[in-house]
Amino acid sequence: MQVVGWWNRPLAFHESCRRRYGERYTVRLLGSPPFVMHSNPEHIREIFTAPPDVLHPGEGATILEPVVGTYSLILLDEQAHLSQRRLMLPAFHGEKMQQLSDIVTEVTEREVAAWPTGDRLTLHPRLQGLTLEVILRAVFGLDPGPKLDELRAALTAILDFATRPMTLVPYLQKEMGGHSRWGKFVAMRREADALVYAMIDEHPGGGDDVLSMLLAARHEDGSPMSPKELRDELMTLLVAGHETTASSLAFGMNMLARNPHVVEELRGEDDDYLQATIQEILRARPVLPNAAPRLVKQPVEIGGWHYERGACLIANTYLVHHDPAIYPDPYSFRPERFLDEPPGTYTWIPFGGGRRRCLGASFAILEMKTVLREVLRRYELEPGVDGAEISRRRSITISPRFGASTVLRSREREPAVA
Fold first, then answer.
1. How many angstroms separate the CA atoms of 382 and 385, rounded?
2. CA–CA gap between residue 162 and residue 34 (Å, rounded)
3. Measured on CA atoms in the order 224, 225, 227, 231, is the torsion positive or negative?
4. In what order do the strands lie in the sheet with 405-410?
5. What are phi and psi of 183, to 5 degrees?
6. Is 271:418 a contact under the CB 8 Å cutoff?
7. pLDDT per residue over 22-68, tens digit each?
8. Full 3-state SS string of the chain
């Protein structure tokens, strides 16, 4: 029953567990170690700051290995994680952010201008297409054309397939000569990998894209990244930098369509209010309902409880974001709460925390700002369905169940939201 609730009612399931068991409870899923959920900020602090040899987030996230690969930054721990993180860190900081900003603006203006008006529209798949093109161009330095289209089609196929429950259950991952659903996934992954490896082999290097940076990167011993390392890190960036941002934007469109007073404030060209609105979207609907699971490798005490090897400790993002003791009236959409007080390190955790905080957090917020500015410049938003649009699970993420159903109305052109 826990598996059914966890998959079919991802947020309501955790709400009911908190009501029944409090701020700490255990979830048991098929083929996984026991997941111990924590929503007390002090416990979350202890989890995020535990020594890297005591809690292993990489081993706690092995369900992602079929897509991202064994060398993915997400799956590494201790020194291997630190070394790889140092190689990846420059990709989304400093001058690179400005170069990425230009790509985001170009793609956003073109895509958003083509959205139809007047009828009910599902925005989530359109936002997925937008964010996937942005990350493909940022990672590979591709211009629009056949190569971009081919790679986009292959990646979309495997990422869509990876959202199904069977990809998360190890004992269902049987190829059966390519005839099983898992076998079909492996074949699609092989096709996508062939394209990625060809891109790596053919890439000239020396550009401003992420692949150029990684080709030039060197480990501490002076060795370059291997093709398998490059493939796994590139796939990690494509997955992590695509689905999460698209779903966050989709939830944001839902909330703005139902809160026109917030839209009016945003059109006042106040960048602080835009930042606060994005923080509130990420608080209200974190697309990763929990931070990365940490597998216990050595006995540890968290929140006064003793844990032996083999348990997985999880900071439950959704529950801490909806704790009325931290966020009064937590189910209301109120960006003003972040004008009054900035997000807390252990009470606002849509990007995780500690040494495992998402490398692309700043880029995700940049992308959300750009898209929201352009959408609000061009359109009025109306809900496409009555009432709140509930959430559905897509692999480890959540998204609007009806695809962010929205009606867009063209508006007179006004100055862009700053």
1. 9
2. 23
3. negative
4. 120-122, 405-410, 379-383
5. -60, -40
6. yes
7. 999 999 887 788 999 999 999 999 999 999 999 999 999 988 898 89
8. CHHHHHHHCHHHHHHHHHHHHCCEEEECCCCCCCEEEECCHHHHHHHHHCCCCCEEHHHHCHHHHHHHCCCCHHHCCHHHHHHHHHHHHHHHCCHHHHHHHHHHHHHHHHHHHCCCCCCEEEHHHHHHHHHHHHHHHHHHCCCCCHHHHHHHHHHHHHHHHCCCHHHHCHHHCCCHHHCCHHHHHHHHHHHHHHHHHHHHHHCCCCCCCHHHHHHHCECCCCCECCHHHHHHHHHHHHHHCCHHHHHHHHHHHHHHHCCHHHHHHHCCCCHHHHHHHHHHHHHHCCCCCCCCCEEECCCEEECCEEECCCCEEEECHHHHHCCCCCCCCCCCCCCCHHHHCCCCCCCCCCCCCHHHCCCCHHHHHHHHHHHHHHHHHHEEEEECCCCCCCEEEECCEEEECCCCEEEEEECCCCCCCC
Answer for the pair 12, 331: CB distance below 8 angstroms, yes or no: no
At position 214, the amino acid (one-letter code) is L
User: Average pLDDT for residues 169-184, to the nearest whole number?
Assistant: 69
For the record, the structure tokens of 291 come out as 């931070």
- Residue keyed to tokens 């990672």: 139
Q: Which amino acid is at 191?
A: E
Cβ neighbours of residue 39 closer than 8 Å, sequence gap 6 or more: 18, 23, 24, 315, 316, 319, 320, 323
In terms of Cα–Cα distance, which of 223, 352, 375 is closest to 289? 352
Tell me the pairing of strands 305-307 and 312-315.
Answer: unpaired
Chain centroid offset of residue 313 CA = 20
The one-letter amino acid at 33:
P
Structure tokens at 32: 């996984």
- Please, which residues have CB within 8 angstroms of residue 371's CB and are 6 or more apart in sequence? 104, 108, 112, 127, 130, 249
CB neighbourhood size of 125 (10 A)? 14
Amino acid at 342: P
pLDDT in tens, 314-370: 999 999 999 999 999 999 999 999 998 899 999 999 999 999 999 999 999 999 999
Rg of the chain over all Cα atoms, to the nearest angstrom: 21
Query: Whole-model pTM above 0.90?
Result: yes
